[in-house]
Structure prediction request, 601 residues.
Amino acid sequence: MKKVDFEKITRDSISQIGLKTCEGALILCLAGIMGCSGANTSATEGAEASAENQAVAGENADAEDNTSGQSETDSAQNDIDSSKEENSTDESIEEQANGEDGALTDEVIASDDTSKSQGSSASGEKSMELYELFLKNEATVLINTENDFGEYWNLDSLKNMDVTLEALSKSIIDYFTADNPSSRLRFEGIDYAYIDCGNDGDPELLLRFNTTDSGDSWQEYIVIKAVDGILETVYSNIAWGRSRLYFNEYGYIFSDGSAGATEHIFDKSFIDSAGKLHFIYSDYSTSGIMAGNIGSVIAVNGEVYSVPNEILTDDEYVFFSFDFFNTPESYFDDIYTYAKVEPDPDPDYEHGYRGYFYAPLADDDSIYEEGNPYRKFFESTGAPLYSLKEMDSKVADKEAKEGLTEEVKNGADADFKPLEYDFAADIPTYNDNNILKIKEYFPIAFLTHDTDGNTAYLRINADGTIEGDYSDWNYNEADGSSVTNKNEFTGAFTVSEKIDDTTYDLELSDYSLKYEVGTSETAEYIKGSASVTNYVDVWGFDDNCTKFRLYTPGTDISKIDKAIVSKLPDNFRESDIENDCLKEYLLYGLEGKNYIWTGFN
Prediction:
């Protein structure tokens, strides 16, 4: 087997959705359930209970001495076992307090259940009052960035500050626009949901900020918890077109994203009733391991291996590396498996979604048998290899250790509702200082296609200046040569007349091409072949037209000449006209060849 050159690979460079937790051992804290005592417990019973507690304490101390040399994992397991012993002791005390038959009296049951119910209800009501004030922009939230995993934008600029919802919204947008100053950014609004992390009856507020730029959609997710009358962020992260976040009603989270055609990453975590984030695992997968596919290169223990062609089959296989310790910077504590993809992928993304991959995996133990070519290949890398069922078991063990219950994991989807208002008018990229004198997002982008389907692009800036380009490329497979026809342009539009509230006549001036029409350049593309670039007139502006009509979103199509409407591309008619009104811009040449430019986000 031939190793290929390896450059340092980290999950952080592959995906921006990894979940991180606090450093240190992961320990499950099991709260002991104390029985009712006091008035119903005799002095003798109290003495017996005290003696029993001392004995248990001595046993626990001995157990700690015996485990001093164990690993972190063993130590965590002893914490679990010790907590179980304490619970058992508490149950013994409870039985002594309940009478001879060990049954709880009606008085004790009523007292215990009522106090729990009233406490949970009162706390939940106070939390809801705070959340509602915050959503009205009448209360603030303390920004805690400990569990802020945003990469493209984050909350660092607000760290340890108390901010309103409006200030939080502006910060998210400001951060994004500062990093992407040329983006045409739309703030689509805010969604919110009430979830109950840990299912303890005390709700948390989950926010989703929906943002779209000219190339993709983005969502910022923030979980807010009320603690002692103070709102505080306990989790924040982003999702976008190739990665997503899933929240259920009890604080269970998975993130699911792709870093390329054959690379996938998945993380599972949850927020408990105290607002603490628990990391369960992350896995990185290389998919499409099959004959004739591009995904036959995998990374194992920091090195890259090519899967031998002779072992590839028509079945699709996926290779996985699993991280249970939240150490994305290191591969040396990862463990590995592979699996066969089901031919008819239809995953259930709810109810504790298994989540190793974006398609179902076959539970086929035969693929791990001795002599299987994939197993032999994997064993040759020296990496620890497990079957899929063994990996399932390890995931279940980690879930139990962290306290993730089936009830929490299998909760329903978070129920998002749109906030009645947003702060779009205050976002810097949404302005009225432009040639149209209306609030709008600039630049406005257009395209038009020539008879061969090649595209010309046009962008109108807020001050009326324009820029754009045109290109078509033709490749000769026989000799590897290519011919490109292209050019770039600049200019300016001014408003010559406002026809009505949605229609404007524009005048073109200062139109200029970057390259002289008729000139060309030739370069060697591949040895023995040539790459020729011809500089041509730009399609859409090659007819000396200087007068244009601009139709803005909201224009009733009955106001537009039927000849123009009949020439609109089918995809524009289907997606950008709704209820007989334009959803996007339309630019029409009033002279020359009457070119039509259609707007797009």
